[in-house]
Design a protein that fits this description.
Blueprint lengths: L1 E6 L1 H14 L1 H9 L1 E4 L3 H11 L11 E4 L2 E4 L9 E4 L2 E3 L15 E5 L2 E2 L5 E5 L5 H13 L2 E5 L9 H4 L17 E5 L3 E3 L1 H9 L2 E7 L9 E6 L2 H14 L35
Parallel strand pairs: 2-7, 7-10, 10-12
Antiparallel strand pairs: 1-14, 2-5, 3-4, 5-6, 8-9, 9-11, 13-14
Helix pairs in contact: 1-3, 1-6
């Protein structure tokens, strides 16, 4: 049996949140070791499923793409990253546990771009490369796994090519924040396709993308498999339809301090789409 459905960006994030939170290696790291959930809008949905509690997902971010620009959420507005250790939430910064992480532990990281070759792109604008600069090399050295979670709306032709461009000191003009990109060629990626396979054991095909009238960033999928599982999947999808979009949270540009075309501007100096 085949079946077709469309997911908005937020509905995809809810699907990914439920699927990743239920994965055995995620549950194992959470209950028996360290599970670090990096900031990001999709990761906020994962965290909500792990905590089984509603949260201000729009504040679980550092870098963000809102109102048509790259932007950052100031330290006073963003939530702290959440770390689980043997089932309990730790009240420490992720840097405090890097040296303690070992095989079986896990970092969940978001992504800004993916391609058909399995490459993963992560934008970096923070000092020393943000989360990637802080974690990537250290965890690779220790052999600790990272899980990258991204919706198919982030599919681009080539992450490898894109990562050759940009960088805070290379970009002479931007509308919004300056950034560089890291290309990860060996990361484990979870999209809607892997999420559906994990939850239902079904083959999923990325069938179409885009829309308007509230469906911007949508992906259309076809799933195929045994009739009972396809129907179970479709019932599940009907249950997450209508997931509301995340509101944009933006601090004042005047005191932001980021390398951004709007840094230092008063509210009345900003274009109408940012006020």
């Amino acid at each position: 049996m085949q079946a077709l459905f469309t997911l908005t960006s937020s509905e995809s994030k809810r699907l990914l949140g439920k699927a990743v939170a239920a994965m055995p290696d995620v549950q194992y790291a959470k209950d028996n070791g360290y599970l670090v959930v990096g900031r990001g809008s999709t990761n906020a949905f994962i965290l909500e499923e792990l905590l089984k509690n509603k949260m201000e997902k729009e504040r679980y971010a550092a870098g963000q793409v809102i109102r048509g620009i790259l932007c950052q959420l100031g330290p006073g507005l963003r939530s702290k990253p959440v770390i689980f250790h043997k089932g309990a939430v730790m009240n420490v910064e992720p840097g405090a546990v890097i040296d303690r992480m070992t095989a079986g532990d896990l970092l969940i990281k978001g992504a800004n771009a993916i391609d058909a070759f399995g490459n993963i792109g992560v934008l970096m604008a923070g000092p020393a490369g943000g989360t990637m600069g802080q974690f990537y090399m250290a965890l690779k050295t220790q052999g600790v796994a990272s899980l990258y979670v991204a919706g198919l709306e982030k599919l681009i032709p080539s992450v490898e090519e894109a990562a050759r461009y940009g960088g805070k000191m290379m970009l002479e003009r931007t509308i919004g924040l300056r950034a560089g990109m890291a290309c990860i060629a060996d990361g484990r990626l979870v999209t809607e396709i892997e999420a559906i396979d994990s939850l239902f054991g079904l083959k999923a095909v990325h069938y179409a993308s885009g829309g308007w009238g509230g469906a911007e960033g949508s992906v259309t999928l076809i799933v195929e498999g045994e009739r009972d599982e396809v129907n179970r999947c479709m019932d599940f999808i009907e249950g997450i339809k209508g997931e509301p979009p995340l509101p944009a949270v933006k601090g004042p540009c005047k005191d932001c301090g980021a390398l951004c075309s709007f840094d230092g501007k008063e509210t009345q100096e900003l274009p109408a789409y940012l006020r």
